[in-house]
């Protein structure tokens, strides 16, 4: 499913195109569209976030150079999707699956794998070149380690190891990805301090994690100072200042506001019944056997994010990406407990098997149909954009050609689909918003 989505899934948000794929194309090929967020005056997007994706394609670049193969630039687009986006998402999903299997039950782990694999929300989130996906994947890995740490309190070496790795993942998710993702690590951080207060393990954890923070901060500052050519800059602070402390009419709300029900409708589309089960599980958490693990590792992060972002006037689908794993896991544990209760009452009878099969079949069918619908009805920009390469092969030329997409500028996938001498340009129209400009091509 992840591989299918990497190849066919749509780009759901033009912000992904212009704020991330275009600057990444600049790193690769020396040109791309520039939004105001990348102006050195504002600097609320970090190049440090893009560098790992640039590095991930080195093997493909080496193969191209050594084999003297001339393939389209959009091969890199799909390589990044397959390896760095979907590939890493699948890796962190597997880590959480194993952790749930070891610390809860194989039934809860299997339900999590089913829910996460086929959720429409996970399907398009897993291919999105967005900091919120980056945060989601590292938070998923952190959650797997946090759950293991909570359940191995009698083994000091394992506790320290799991705790350090979990906190490091939260730090990377927040610093390199999205600063607000740090909120998801607060429950586990407080649990760690409370559990090991004034003990040697806590000192080790604090020391190692402080080193991680320093190294990650140094990486961010070094990379962004190079690209923005400023004396000092820490982009995560700029992001928080813009989103939280901007004056009236200057913050993200200028791009639109939505009621709380926007997220309810959105989660129903992206998770259908799993969304309902995930939040029902919060109430059922009081009756669970592993109450501490569920509360610290799943329930509190889910509640914190839901309340904080539900109260923000400006709402976007991608803002919820970091809690997608918690939605799947919360619903999985609740579902496994419900079926365990039914099994105790009915035994492994025909009706139990029928209910089990029908539940899985219904969820998978509805979810897959939603995924196929997205691909069938909204993937045209990705398929038609390949025609630019075909045009350049059929009519080779070294002169620059302008590509105009009319009022469909927000459907343009990325300059990775353009040959080296093609450039996306805009013409005057009825739209009076602020469209991206061009990165200086001699400074990439």
Spatially, the strands of the biggest sheet line up as 1-4
How many domain modules? Answer: 1
Biggest beta sheet summary: 2 strands, antiparallel
> Gap between N and C termini, in Å?
36 Å
EC number: 2.4.1.-
Subcellular location: Endoplasmic reticulum membrane
Keywords: Endoplasmic reticulum, Glycosyltransferase, Membrane, Transferase, Transmembrane, Transmembrane helix
Transmembrane segments: 75-97, 109-127, 133-152, 164-190, 202-220, 232-248, 260-280, 292-311, 323-342, 354-376
Characterise this structure.
The structure is a single chain. By secondary structure, the protein is an all-alpha fold. The protein has one domain (2-57, 75-381). The protein has helices spanning 2-8, 14-29, 47-56, 58-67, 74-103, 106-118, 120-125, 131-150, 156-177, 186-195, 200-228, 235-244, 261-271, 273-284, 291-310, 324-346, 350-378, 380-384, 387-394; strands at 33-34, 401-404, 422-425, 437-438. The strands form 2 sheets. Strands 1-4 form a two-stranded antiparallel sheet. The longest helix has 30 residues, at 74-103. 40% of the residues are buried.
């Amino acid at each position: 499913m992840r591989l299918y989505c990497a190849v066919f899934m749509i780009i759901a948000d033009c912000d992904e195109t212009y704020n991330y794929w275009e600057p990444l194309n600049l790193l690769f090929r020396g040109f791309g569209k520039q939004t105001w967020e990348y102006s050195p005056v504002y600097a609320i997007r970090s190049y440090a976030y893009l560098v790992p994706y640039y590095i991930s394609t080195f093997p493909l670049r080496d193969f191209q150079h050594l084999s003297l193969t001339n393939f389209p630039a959009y091969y890199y687009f799909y390589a990044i999707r397959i390896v760095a986006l979907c590939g890493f998402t699948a890796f962190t999903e597997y880590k959480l699956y194993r952790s749930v299997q070891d610390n809860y039950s194989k039934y809860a782990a299997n339900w999590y794998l089913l829910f996460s694999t086929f959720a429409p929300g996970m399907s398009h989130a897993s291919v999105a070149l967005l900091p919120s996906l980056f945060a989601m994947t590292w938070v998923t890995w952190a959650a797997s380690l946090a759950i293991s740490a909570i359940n191995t309190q009698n083994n000091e070496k394992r506790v320290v190891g799991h705790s350090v790795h979990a906190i490091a993942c939260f730090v990377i998710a927040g610093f390199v990805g999205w600063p607000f993702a740090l909120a998801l690590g607060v429950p586990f951080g407080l649990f760690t301090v409370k559990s090991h207060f004034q003990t040697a393990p806590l000192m080790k954890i604090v020391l190692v994690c402080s080193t991680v923070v320093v190294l990650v901060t140094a990486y961010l500052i070094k990379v962004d100072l190079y690209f923005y050519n400023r004396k000092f800059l820490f982009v995560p602070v700029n992001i928080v200042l813009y989103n939280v402390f901007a004056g009236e009419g200057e913050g993200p709300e200028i791009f639109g506001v939505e009621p709380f029900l926007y997220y309810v409708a959105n989660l129903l589309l992206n998770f259908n019944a799993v969304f309902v089960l995930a939040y029902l599980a919060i109430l059922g958490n009081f009756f669970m056997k592993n109450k501490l693990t569920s509360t610290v590792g799943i329930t509190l992060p889910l509640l914190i994010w839901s309340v904080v972002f539900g109260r923000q006037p400006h709402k976007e689908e991608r803002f919820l990406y970091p809690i997608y794993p918690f939605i799947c896991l919360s619903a999985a544990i609740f579902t496994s407990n419900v079926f365990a209760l039914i099994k105790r009452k009915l035994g492994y009878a025909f009706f139990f098997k029928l209910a089990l099969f029908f539940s899985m079949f219904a969820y998978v069918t509805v979810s897959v149909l939603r995924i196929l619908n997205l691909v069938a009805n909204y993937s045209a920009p990705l398929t038609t954009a390949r025609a630019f390469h075909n045009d350049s092969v059929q009519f080779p030329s070294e002169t620059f050609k302008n590509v105009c997409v009319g009022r469909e500028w927000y459907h343009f996938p990325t300059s990775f689909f353009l040959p080296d001498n093609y450039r996306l340009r805009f013409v005057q129209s009825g739209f009076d918003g602020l469209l991206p400009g061009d990165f200086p091509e001699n400074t990439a």
